[in-house]
Design a protein that fits this description.
Layout: E1 4-7, E2 10-13, E3 18-24, E4 32-39, E5 46-52, E6 57-59, E7 67-72, E8 77-82, E9 91-99, E10 108-111, E11 115-120
Parallel strand pairs: 2-11
Antiparallel strand pairs: 1-3, 3-8, 4-5, 4-9, 5-6, 7-8, 9-10, 9-11
Length: 121
């Protein structure tokens, strides 16, 4: 039904930057929330950043000031720009889409397969 494909992960040195991309197979201009989650081995999956179709953004405290989430509805893509990367940022990053229906019981959640980010010290 819906596919989310992440790209842009890789190995980067501490202090470097990275830009992650997530392209959806469906239009993302309608009412929804999209975001980036990450999960390191042994850790819970945590929300890094989210953006609503109205443009509102939220960031985890751990990346506040170092991350920017944005979207391009024409390209059906959201981005996560990460700056001043730390080894603690190392994780698999997952793209997420939650469609918002008029009734919340019809909301749907979709996940990408993830892209790995490894930050070396």
């Amino acid at each position: 039904q819906v596919q989310l494909v992440e790209s842009g992960g890789g190995l980067v040195q501490s202090g470097g930057s990275l830009r992650l991309s997530c392209t959806a197979s469906v239009d993302i201009s309608s009412r929804n929330v999209m975001g980036w989650y990450r999960q390191a081995p042994g850790n819970q999956r945590e929300l890094v950043a989210s953006i609503t179709s109205g443009g509102s953004t939220n960031y985890a405290d751990s990346v506040q000031g170092r991350a920017t989430i944005s979207r391009d509805t024409v390209k059906r893509t959201i981005y996560l720009q990460m700056e001043s990367l730390k080894p603690a940022d190392s994780a698999v990053y997952y793209c997420h889409l939650r469609t918002l229906a008029l009734s919340s019981k019809y909301d749907r959640n979709y996940w990408g397969q993830g892209t790995e980010v490894a930050v070396s010290s």
